[in-house]
Amino acid sequence: MKMASFPGGVHPAQRKDTAYSAIERLPAPEKVYLHLSNSCGCPSKAIVKKGDAVLKGSVIAEPAGRISAFIHSPVSGIVEDIKKWPHFSGQKLEAVIIKNDFKDEFAPSRNAKDASLLAPSEITEVVRNSGIVGLGGAAFPSDVKLLPLRAHKAATLIINACECEPFLTADESLIREKAVDIIEGAKIAGRALAAKRIIIGIEDNKAETAEELLKRSSDRIQVRLLKTKYPQGGEKQLIYALTGRKVPMCGLPLDVGVAVLNVSTVFAIFEAVVKSKPLYERVVTLGAYFRKPGNVIISAGTRLEDIINFRGGLPDNVNKIVLGGPMMGQALCDLDVPVSKAASGILLMTDVERKEYECLRCMRCASVCPMGLVPRESLALYKAGKSYGGALNCIECGSCAYICPSRIPLLHYLKLSKKKLAALSCPDARSPAAPAGRTLTK
Length: 442
Ligand code: SF4
Ligand code: SF4
Fold this sequence. Notes:
Elements: E1 24-25, E2 31-35, E3 45-46, E4 53-54, E5 59-62, E6 71-72, E7 77-86, E8 92-100, H1 120-129, H2 142-146, E9 156-160, H3 170-193, E10 197-203, H4 207-214, E11 221-226, H5 235-243, E12 258-262, H6 263-275, E13 281-288, E14 294-299, H7 304-310, E15 320-323, E16 330-332, E17 345-349, H8 364-368, H9 376-383, H10 399-403, H11 410-425
Bound molecules: iron/sulfur cluster (2 copies).
Residues 368-371, 373, 375, 394-400, 410-411, 414 line the site of one iron/sulfur cluster (SF4).
């Protein structure tokens, strides 16, 4: 297989120690905390109230706009409260709190129709009703992605199996155990989009895992190995590597006739369409210094503290908890924060205090930026009280901060610039549910 890549990027240590661990299931917690802000769009609208009984898989919140998602309960039980609860954004946001009755009673499911008989619009409707959002971290409602390509002549569906962040192996473990279902999910999504071809992109550090997909590939579904390089899973980088098409600055994959779905998202689509199972749980990598690391199915809304306790407790030397991977993930400071549908990993880290030095003007940050930006300008402009316009094209991959010899947290300055600029053009961008790095789907 020919390997492709993109300009720029970095090569952090992979640390994929959990890659070959079998997927386990975390016990359901006593309570789940389901934030209404669960996608990158508008917060959903609760349709339950305190004291209501809910079943596993029943709808507890509906979309409040086009870019918004259904939320389903991962347990059966009683709605204990609807109130503000710590969110990974650092704020307290409205959440539905459900006390688990441990009866595991399921909501009646629709009769699963033969997926091959569903019209594209019916597939999209099932995806929407099942609350599926992008599981690579962006949490963009997947039904919205499935709509517009139908009219495009060279419609291509790309399945992102790169999982380029160090430590994370949730997608890889899913491919090894569920390759047949993933291929089926890709076909279903491809039908909804009327895609002419489907390409699965996977980095060459997972060549053995890629064989599982390759065995099931066909003329219509190709599997392509890509160079292991971060951020190979960035949407624009992936599209360029696999098709040679360049998504314009501030443009969308749609502009070049492509839709990109993460491999876990495609698996969720399979489960929704074929098994009538809404999205209320997913595989999450518990990595770095977890006492019991691995890939684990976790119910949405499970608090970090419950997850850590189920896996042996918090080791003494851990002083940083990261939601996601070490490059793009978010440091958390509250163990009450629950995982959302989009959480692909939790890392327990022993972070050494990093002293920041003066900028050397070495331009290494610019040389690795996959978007062709000059990240050091974000720092210079921030110090001058201004915003860096290029920040709007930043995919927040963190490559610049990773490579900087002066250890300047460039991504932090880029995010500040981005927020300021976005707030100027769209007041809604101040909302904590606004997209932060929409283009990286991993
Ligand atoms: S890599 Fe760091 S030190 Fe070098 S120019 Fe960029 S910000 Fe300055
Ligand atoms: S400027 Fe943005 S896109 Fe460029 S390397 Fe830094 S974080 Fe990545």
